[in-house]
Write a structure and sequence with these properties.
The chain contains two helices and 18 strands. It is mostly beta strands. It binds calcium ion. Calcium ion (CA) binds next to β18.
Length: about 300
């Protein structure tokens, strides 16, 4: 995990110091002819994850280390709107990937407070208290659990929340909704939604949102990449490298407080099961187990 970032930094440092040694021995040993025999210092090796304009990631998670030291693993919780029980057992790391799964339970958890029978369990991790950042480039590569017509209620997400509780902002880089289901005739199969919430206190719930383009089928069983590019001026959502939704600071008076104040945001990855918006699970339309498989999460800093 930190593994690759650390390894990258160590090797870059090693290359830099050997280059320094090389230059000093050359200038000491060859006083004549140095004009023609100039030894150029080697540049430090670039991170394989270098991105033009953004540089090298400041947060890098390849999921090679099963200890998940950069994350908090949620356990025995109920998420908002959800019909599942969050369990740490639903989070596994294997072959350089993390799998957040949903499972139908043999016996429902009786949630008397919310008057629900919770028939599913699900995985949830975040970086609260471990990593947060204002602005930057946030990217994740994953395979979605929203199997077409066999995932009713399955709701995977990659999202950010502000550390500052008085900042009502939320950035949903990816939310996808299992099918069969539709809201107001809109079928979410094969697509995901990118959303900015400006405020979300009680009735004061304001947002701007867009679905990924139909030409990209996110239900094709393959890995896809979701990216957010966030500067003090605008936020752009991309899927598989294609920008599909941009919101500028000047587009909304609430943008600045939520996303332009410099408040850092932390990262969340989870799957919920069931919502009042997109439907609740059932044994016929929802697979007993689904896997949200994430290959990596990386974050680059905004450099101005
Ligand atoms: Ca990986």
């Amino acid at each position: 995990m930190a593994s690759v970032a650390t390894a990258g930094m160590v090797s870059a440092f090693a290359v830099a110091s050997s280059a320094t040694a090389c230059v000093s021995s050359s200038s000491g040993g060859a006083s004549k002819g140095s004009a023609t025999g100039t030894v150029q210092p080697q540049r430090p090796a670039k991170s394989p994850y270098y991105v033009k304009g953004w540089g090298t990631p400041v947060f890098n998670e390849d999921f090679n280390d099963p200890s998940l030291a950069q994350w908090n693993i949620h356990d025995n919780e109920y998420a908002n709107h959800d019909w599942s029980t969050v369990k740490k057992e639903n989070v596994t790391v294997k072959n350089g990937k993390i799998i957040l799964n949903t499972k139908r339970l043999d016996q429902a958890v009786n949630d008397e407070k919310n008057e629900k029978k919770r028939w599913y369990s699900a995985g949830f991790i975040d970086t609260v208290g471990k990593f947060s950042q204002a602005y930057g480039r946030f990217e994740m590569r994953a395979k979605l659990p929203t199997i077409k017509n066999k995932s009713r209620g399955i709701w995977p997400a990659f999202w950010l929340r502000a550390d500052n509780p008085s900042n009502g902002g939320e950035i949903d880089i990816l939310e996808a909704y299992g099918t069969p289901d539709a809201v107001n005739g809109f079928d979410p199969a094969g697509r995901s939604q990118g959303t900015l919430h400006y405020t979300q206190d009680g009735e004061n719930w304001t947002m701007t949102s867009k679905f990924t383009p139909k030409r990209i089928d996110l239900n094709d069983g393959e890995f896809h990449t979701w990216t957010l590019e966030w500067t003090p001026e605008k936020i752009t959502f991309l899927v598989d490298g294609q920008a599909y939704h941009t919101v500028k600071k000047t587009d909304d008076p609430r943008w600045k407080k939520a996303f332009g104040s410099g408040d850092p945001y932390s990262i969340r990855l989870n799957v919920q099961v069931g919502s009042k918006y997109w439907g609740t699970p059932n044994p016929t339309d929802t697979a007993d187990r689904t896997d949200y498989v994430v290959d990596y999460v990386r974050v680059w800093k905004y450099r101005g």
